[in-house]
């Protein structure tokens, strides 16, 4: 096991709140797919050169060696991830076809972000590279705090001390906090993210109606779009096997995209 010398780095952790209860109370298969897609959305929203260290269930441990981001870069990244996350949730709400509890309750998930700047090392364990050091422990401890809001961005004074004074975006109302952990007393600032919800765009509505057809086709559409029911209406089918990892939603393209196999 080889360990490099520690280097200054940004640690950035977006955390999906309500994950445990969401998975526990809902259909496990669809809840897993939803969390997977949300985590992928957060990764795709990375625009500051963050690297993924680990996906930790409902959170992602990002890091970036070198100089810390400016305040402008930091809040722009926070905004990007938050808006992308809730845009995906709104997509589930507006374009979902599945009526299971997981798909219908995904809108209750929330997002918080914790950021810290400190020194970390990398440890190689076989083919896996792990982050190591007290500051890695610190950023994880900060996920548990006394902040009463559900959606916020928390950032430590070790990060803000590197910033020059700038004009903050209108949505930022900075508040201060202090927490005592086994790693010591940590001073931090945090901002509520709820004002950003007004920036979440409405999903593009796709028109799948049949010109000239005025009768109600929803029951038929539900049956046709529920691939698990195909065995009931495809003559000679004996078994349906699903080996994909995506949710079926409006715009999905038939069997090939969903990776269903009908065995006869």
Give me a quick take on this structure:
With 264 residues, the chain is an alpha+beta fold. It is built from nine helices and eleven strands.
Helix-and-strand structural type: alpha+beta
Sequence stretches where pLDDT stays below 50 over 5 or more residues: 253-262
Determine the N-to-C terminus distance. 52 Å
Main pleated-sheet profile: 9 strands, mixed
- What is the ordering of alpha helices and beta strands? EEHHEEHHEEHEHEEHHEHE
For this structure, the CATH topology of the largest domain is: Alpha-Beta Plaits
State the fourth-level CATH superfamily of the largest domain: Nucleotide cyclase, GGDEF domain
Number of domains: 2
Instruction: Tell me the number of helical segments per DSSP (H or I, 4 or more residues long).
Output: 9
Helix content: 25-40%
Mean pLDDT over the residues:
81
Cα-based radius of gyration, to the nearest Å: 22 Å
Known CATH architecture of the largest domain: 2-Layer Sandwich
Report the portion of residues in β strands: 25-35%
Total DSSP E strands: 11
CATH class division of the largest domain: Alpha Beta
Q: Which descriptor suits the 3D outline? A: globular
């Amino acid at each position: 096991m080889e360990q490099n010398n520690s280097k200054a780095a940004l640690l950035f952790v977006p955390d999906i709140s309500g994950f445990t209860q969401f998975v526990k109370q809902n259909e496990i298969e669809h809840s897993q797919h939803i969390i997977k897609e949300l985590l992928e959305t957060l990764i795709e929203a990375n625009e500051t050169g963050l690297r993924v260290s680990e996906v930790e269930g409902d959170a992602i441990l990002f890091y970036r060696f070198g100089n810390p981001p400016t305040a402008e870069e930091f809040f722009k990244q926070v905004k990007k991830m938050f808006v992308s996350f809730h845009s995906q949730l709104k997509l589930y709400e507006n374009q979902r076809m599945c009526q299971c509890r997981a798909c219908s309750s995904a809108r209750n998930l929330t997002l918080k972000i914790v950021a810290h700047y400190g020194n970390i090392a990398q440890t190689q364990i076989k083919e896996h590279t792990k982050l190591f050091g007290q500051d890695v422990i610190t950023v994880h401890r900060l996920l548990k705090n006394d902040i009463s809001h559900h959606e916020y961005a928390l950032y430590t004074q070790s990060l803000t001390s590197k910033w020059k004074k700038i004009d903050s975006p209108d949505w930022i109302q900075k508040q201060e906090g202090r927490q005592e952990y086994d790693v010591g007393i940590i001073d931090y600032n945090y901002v509520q993210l709820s004002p950003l919800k007004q920036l979440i765009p409405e999903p593009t509505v796709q028109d799948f109606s049949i010109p000239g057809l005025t009768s109600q086709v929803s029951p038929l559409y539900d049956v046709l779009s529920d691939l698990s029911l195909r065995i009931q209406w495809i003559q000679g089918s004996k078994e349906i096997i699903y080996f994909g990892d995506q949710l079926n939603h409006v715009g999905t393209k038939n069997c090939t995209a969903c990776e269903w196999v009908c065995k006869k």
